[in-house]
Structure formats: C-alpha cells, structure tokens
Design goal:
elongated; mainly beta; six-stranded antiparallel beta barrel; SH3 type barrels; eight-stranded mixed sheet; about 5% helix; Elongation Factor Tu (Ef-tu), domain 3
C-alpha cells in the first residue's frame, strides 16, 4: 500500500491526539522509588532517561531518571520520586508521551489512531463503511469495517486487500476478497 499523505506517517496532524498511551504503572518496586511499568508501545526504547512523560488523566509531567528491563516490562525511576510510597500514588495510572515525540514510521505504515475512523471504499470508490476496530492476530492485523446496515467487513491487512490509504482525504481503498462480510450477531 502507498501513502498518499503529504506528511510522513509519523508526524502528528490536525485531529490526531496530542498524547499517546505507551504504558501503565503497575506498582512500586524495591525501596528506591522505582515503578514496575507494563509496556503498551512497540517502541519501548522511547522510554529512556531524560524523557518527559505524562501520567494519569491529569497528565502529570514526569521525567524519567532511570530505566532497566524487568521480566515482561520495565522498571522506571522518575526525577523527584524517591520512595515506594510516592510511586504507590501512581499505581495503575497510564503513561503517555507527546504525539509529536513518536518515531516516524516507514512509508506505507501507519499508527492505529491514524487510520481508525477512515472511510473504507472499494476499487470503484463505493463506500463500504468506517474502519471501527483493528484486531491484532499472529499473522497480520484484521480491520473491522462497520457498514451502515450493521454488518461488518473483515479485511486482512495484506497488500492483496489494502490498495491505498489517503490520510488527508480520510479514506482507505480496498480490494474485496470473497467471504469478508459477516452479519452482526447479538
């Protein structure tokens, strides 16, 4: 698929979120004020010392002082937080970064928030619905397109199906393979 955008896929544009969730503070670890963090991002290297992050719904700004791996997550220490009691106040809060700080993606790749809500059209330009959900499977993502009549299209995110994404026009052009429509069930 090709990007028809004038901006690189990694650049924030109008209508995109200002902050992106990259993890969640689970609990204090040890006695030196470290926090065990569950990672949600594909780019955990961005959570490096001296990085400004935002914590919780109030977007409390914190600067990472130290980082080290721990099992399936990271241990982070923050400037001005030196005790487990201080970290405990941050338990279960989301960690966000500025969308402007996200790494750019290669041509033709997009962050989920950039494509959710796009109008999906077929090769002839006929509107099929809106991209409502992205299912992450082992082989490839599957795009769930909600149609006006309540049915869903399941589109594998593969080059045979995805023809082009045009972010400025907010459209995704696709080639339909047989068997992609399913009825909404209650």
């Amino acid at each position: 698929m090709s990007a028809a955008s004038e901006r690189p896929a990694g650049s924030p544009s109008a209508g995109e979120p200002a902050l992106l969730v990259v993890g969640k503070i689970r609990r204090p670890h040890g006695v030196a004020g470290e926090a065990l963090v569950e990672i949600y991002t594909d780019f955990p290297e961005r959570l490096a010392p001296k990085t400004l992050i935002f914590v919780g719904a109030a977007h409390q700004p914190l600067t990472i002082r130290k980082r080290r791996p721990h099992k399936d997550g990271l241990l982070l220490a923050f400037e001005d937080i030196t005790t487990p009691e201080q970290v405990g106040l941050l338990r279960n809060l989301m960690i966000s970064i500025s969308a402007a700080d996200r790494p750019p993606l290669p041509e033709g790749e997009y962050y989920h928030h950039q494509i959710l809500g796009l109008s999906v059209v077929d090769e002839d330009g006929q509107e099929l619905g809106k991209l409502a959900e992205i299912l992450e499977t082992g082989a490839n993502d599957v795009y769930v397109v909600t149609r006006d009549d309540g049915t869903e299209l399941l589109l594998p995110a593969i080059s045979d199906v995805l023809l082009d994404i045009d972010l400025p026009r907010k459209t995704m052009r696709v080639h339909l393979l047989p068997g992609l429509i399913r009825e909404e069930r209650e």
